[in-house]
Each structure stands twice: as structure tokens, then as C-alpha cells.
Amino acid sequence: MTEDRVETFDAIIIGSGQAGNPLALALAKEKWKVAIVEKAVLGGTCVNTGCTPTKAYVASARAAWAIANAHNLGIEVPKSPKVNLKAIKKRKDKIVSSSRLGLRKALADSPQISMIRGTATLLDKTRVKVGSRVLKSSKIFLNVGARARIPEGFADVGYLTNTSILQLEKIPEHLIVVGGSYIGLEFAQIFRRFGSKVTVLEMGNYLISKEDHDTSDLVRGILENEGIKVICGAKCLRGKNKKSGGATVTFHKEGKDKQVSGSHLLIATGRIPNSDLLNPENADLTVNDRGYVEVNSKLETTIKSIYALGDCNGRGAFTHTSYNDYEIMVDQLFGDKKKTVNDRIINYALYIDPPLGRAGMTLSQAKESGKNLLFARMAMSDISRAKEKGETQGKMEVIVDADSEQILGAAVLGTGGDEIIGTFLTAMYGKMSYKTLMNSVQTHPTVTELIPTLLQQLTPVKK
Ligand SMILES: Cc1cc2nc3c(=O)[nH]c(=O)nc-3n(C[C@H](O)[C@H](O)[C@H](O)COP(=O)(O)OP(=O)(O)OC[C@H]3O[C@@H](n4cnc5c(N)ncnc54)[C@H](O)[C@@H]3O)c2cc1C
Ligand SMILES: NC(=O)c1ccc[n+]([C@@H]2O[C@H](COP(=O)([O-])OP(=O)(O)OC[C@H]3O[C@@H](n4cnc5c(N)ncnc54)[C@H](O)[C@@H]3O)[C@@H](O)[C@H]2O)c1
Description:
By secondary structure, the protein is an alpha/beta fold. It is built from twelve helices and 24 strands. The chain starts with 5 loop residues before the first strand and ends with a strand.
């Protein structure tokens, strides 16, 4: 390969994900000559097979649920609703393609940016191969994301992932979901509300096992109240196609192998980073045993010319963490270099309905920190607005550092929980004393107005 056939850029971005796209635009604004390489469609997981399409489905599922439960609010609906998955998918596809088109236009409008289609591999520390093209830069930004992890025993069975389930046009009769965490639970409730029978098989003893056990139990109750069958402590070993269509899953529980059969099977057992597709060994890039590209708090990898952003660096697994990586990168390149990954407060939502909003530590994590803690919890059923809405499942809780008076963590599982958690998060970023929030006057009637009341109920946690 001769050097004169090599195309040189100020930056090469691999992956058009939640960090790569804004980074390309920011670098172009600084007059850098940028190549952005994408092997599939623009926008990555969030836009195409993650947040956007799933939350569009959550909205359709919520509409179906609201109609089916309207009698609770005194509304008689003569016939049970008909869910038209083809129409739901069409609506979702329209939202997704509009995001993608906006992105394509933004990138195409910049003369500084070359959009290159294909799978990029690293040739060495500064050169990247895409098909027959060789690109070179002293700065390579990896934003390659992750894909569904398929356990060994399922390789030969007809399964769905978060990508293929979004292509269905007929509602599954019985959906088996392997994995009881974010992806599994969101799809479980969506399809239950669309009319499927749903069975969730989770290896751990609790759903969403990173949460406190009482949170997991409440989430399980919400799902079971809608008729979803949840089996925890079920390590799924293998799947087999049924002659009549569908699949049978064999799982190990309480010392025995058991089976469950369904018309469709969704595998939601976590993600693996796409770093393997890059041939990282060619650049001596350090990838850990789970496939994540190792970075420091400034997103620098072990190789001076290479940076890693988003899910592939293992420092976050959400759209907002990937986008924040982009903000950190820009600050490190052009700003005052103060932003780092270490400053980020963990936060996310689980978009079942009602949703779980989370910020900072769980109670068990806070206890492990050894700090003097204050804690308060209230049931959603004690909150007027929740009662008025007829949506009283869930809880609100907060953990405070008794010495600094700062909030260490909060959870809002209940109506509006995904939005309400932002109030706690803002106080945490502002390093505010909990008393400021406790003395604030919030709007009535909202669920948020319970935050001051909740904080008045703080009591010390025994060590
Ligand atoms: C079903 C589901 C629902 C989700 N819901 C939420 C949610 O509600 N909220 C939230 O915050 N997060 C959610 N997430 C997580 C979120 O989608 C990701 O954290 C987010 O997309 C960040 O990804 P990224 O920027 O790291 O990369 P991605 O968005 O995954 O983009 C990586 C891109 O790199 C490309 N690529 C990979 N390898 C190569 C290569 N060698 N050459 C060229 N291109 C390559 C890929 O094709 C892809 O387009 C969800 C995820 C899933 C799967
Ligand atoms: N609302 C959101 O923000 C959202 C929504 C969906 C996905 N995501 C992102 O996607 C990532 C992946 O989500 P996920 O739910 O696939 O993965 P996860 O890693 O959170 O959970 C996987 C689950 O599968 C279980 N499991 C693994 N192997 C199993 C087996 N053989 N049998 C039974 N159970 C098994 C695990 O115990 C675990 O509970 C998350 O980390 C999250 O960041 C976020």
C-alpha cells in the first residue's frame, strides 16, 4: 500500500453514534477536516434500535393500556382496543427516519466532513481501513457502540434482539424474554400491553439486579399486575426451535432443568462492545476482558492518537453518557480541560410504565460508602396527584449524607418518575444542601411537591 493513496484527515471518527455525530460537527466548526465512518445507518443504537423506537412503542403501549383501563376513571369503552402493530411500527419508523434524515443533512451540509460508509478496521495507531480506502490521522475517535450479547446455547435458535423485534408486524402470541433488565423489561411490558402473553426469565434472584431489592420487588409487582409471568433465579441454558414454530427455552432453577415454550423469543442478556470489529490489536489498543476499550477520565486510550467515547469505553451505557463523552472531548480539545468522566453523576430511567427514575447511589451502595446517612421513603399511594391520576404504584426515596447535607442518591418509581428525578439530580449537581430543596415551595398538585415532605421525613440509617 503506497502512502500517496492514503487519505489524510485532521480527525477520523469511527461510528455515527451519540458522541460521534456531534463531535464531527464540533470539529468541523473548528475547521478540522473530518472523516466519519459508519458501517450501518446513521445515528447508531439510540436513534435506530434503542431509545427512540422503544419509547415510541412505550407511548403506543401506554395508549392501549389507558383505553383498556379507562373504566377505572369512569370512562366506558365499548370494545377492547385493537392494537395494530403495523401502524405502530409505521409511526415508529417515521420518527426514526426523521431523526436520521436530520442527522444526515447536518453532516452533509458541512464541507469539512466526509461521510464514509463501511466497516472501519485499525491498520495501526494512525491508519484506518474502510473497504479499499485507507484513511490516516493523528486523532482517531472510536464511537463504535455495542450489540446484543447472545448466550452460547442460543446461537442456533430463531431469536429476536432489540433490533429484530422492532421489525415485527404481527403481535407475538407468547413472547419469552430472556434477561430481566432494562431491555427485557421495557419490551416485556410493551408487548404485554399490545396483547401478547409474556414470560420473563431472569438468571438473578431479582429483576434489574443493580437496584435495591425493594425497588426490584416493586417493579416485579407492577409487571405481574399486568399479567406478565416473571421467573427469577432462572439461568437460561439453551433454546431449541419448535417444529410448529416458536422456541423452547431450557433453564436451570433450584437444581433442576425446566422448560418453557413460546411463539417468539427475545434475547436481552446484555451488550458486548463492537471493539472486536476494529482489530484493536493492530494498534496495540488495550481492550479489557469484557471487550471495553480502556480509557482514563479524559477518554484517552492507552494509545496517544486514539480516544474512545460512548458505550464502547465501558464508562457509561446510555445516550446521555455517550453525549456527555462528546462534551468532555470537546472541552479537552478546545476548552479549559476541566470536564472529565469522573464528574458525572450516574442517572437513568427504566421506561416501564410507571417509570423508574434514578440518580446517584442506591441505598446499599450508600451503606457501603461508610458515610453517615439519612434516608426517607414514601409510597406513591400517599401522593395526592398519583391518587388523582389513579396511578399509585411505586415509591419515592432519597439518601442524604448527614455530614455534608448533600443528596447522595434518589429513586422515583411512579408516575412521572423519569422527569421528577431531574429535581434531585439538579440539587446533586449544584451540591445543594437538602434543606434548600426541603424549604422550596413546589407546585400543587404535582408528584414533585412531595419532595419537600419526603425530605422532612429523613431519619438516620443505622450503621
Ligand atoms: C433497546 C434499547 C433501548 C435503549 N434505551 C435507552 C434509553 O431509553 N435511554 C438511554 O439513555 N439509553 C438507552 N439505550 C442505550 C443507548 O442506545 C446507547 O447507550 C447509546 O446509543 C450510546 O451509544 P454510542 O454512542 O456509544 O454508540 P451507538 O449509538 O451504538 O453507535 C455506534 C455506531 O458505530 C457503528 N460501528 C460499530 N463498529 C463500526 C466499525 N468498525 N466501523 C464503522 N462503524 C461502526 C455502529 O453501526 C453504530 O452506528 C438503549 C439501548 C437499547 C439497545
Ligand atoms: N431505559 C434505558 O436507559 C435503557 C433501556 C434499554 C437498554 N439500555 C441500555 O442497554 C444496556 C443493556 O441492557 P440489557 O437489559 O440487555 O442488559 P443488562 O446487562 O442490564 O441485563 C442483562 C440481564 O440478563 C440476565 N441474564 C444474562 N444471561 C442470562 C441467562 N443465560 N439467563 C437468564 N438471564 C440472563 C442478567 O442477569 C441481567 O439481569 C443497559 O446497560 C442499558 O444501559 C438502557
